Amino acid sequence: MELLNNLSWIIIIIVTCIYVLVLYLTKKIPIIRGYIGEWRVKKELDKLPEGYESLHDLMISVDGKMSQIDHIVIATTGIFIIETKNLTGIVYGKIRQKNWVQYQSKHHKRQFQNPLHQNYGHMKQLASVLEREESDFETLVVFNERVKLKLDNDLQIIRNSQVVKVIQSYKETKLTDGECQELIIQLRKINIQSYKNKQKHIEQIQQNIKNSELLIKQNICPKCKTELVKRTGKHGEFLGCSNFPKCRYTAKSKNAKFDKLY
């Protein structure tokens, strides 16, 4: 009996340690949070009925530039490109802003690329590679339920649990069954699966981040390469592009951090 009690306590301790470790890694490592978010959306997309085909974690290359697409759903109602965000805290953003801001606490904030712009770029690349009209595509940005969103009222952002319902709400027929099957074959062919190429994509992102941070330190706008100047807003001082309003790039400080720039 004593042996069983000791064994039970050992199991409880091990399970607790694993749980705490998972929580810690989920909060501390954005890459793991990203994978978890993509997995959750994949589980939701698996609920789509027959007639909808889902592809996940695609890597494509267009003119030497690689992009990673979280999910693509093919149906007669269109080609749905889905960007997922699995975040905590509060997210502030506007449709025209290049970067949105995530606040996890008063002293912990970070910028990440506007996912609407990011997904639009994916759509343009896919339209070019697949030789399809842009009207055949629908772009969706999906956030997890836990994060609080402070966005423009007209932004069409959805939550994980809404993704299936939203996709099924599209009724207009854009593709034939034959076109759907052909697109699935094309996407599987152009998907880059090798570790070497995926590593190259990661290195490309990291280099883009370094280049942008270097330009900011030199008071140069990473977007249009003109001078950055100090401006004052309701939240204090920030760096803004001197080419405003043609370029609306801003940075909170010379040490601004970026999540994705591609």
Describe what is shown at a glance.
The chain is of the alpha/beta class and 262 residues long. It has two domains: 192 residues, no CATH class; 69 residues, 2-Layer Sandwich (Bacterial Topoisomerase I, domain 1).
Could you name the key traits of this structure?
5-stranded mixed sheet; 6 helices; disordered C terminus; alpha/beta; 39% helix; Bacterial Topoisomerase I, domain 1; 262 residues; 2 domains; globular
Tell me what you see in this structure.
This protein folds into 2 domains: 192 residues, no CATH class; 69 residues, 2-Layer Sandwich (Bacterial Topoisomerase I, domain 1), CATH 3.30.65. Strands 1-2-3-7-9 form a 5-stranded mixed β-sheet, with helices on both faces. It has a 4-stranded mixed β-sheet with strand order 6-5-4-8. The longest helix has 27 residues. It is globular, with a radius of gyration of 21 Å. Helix 1 packs across helix 2. 39% of the residues lie in helices and 28% in strands. It contains 6 helices and 12 strands. With 262 residues, the chain is of the alpha/beta class.
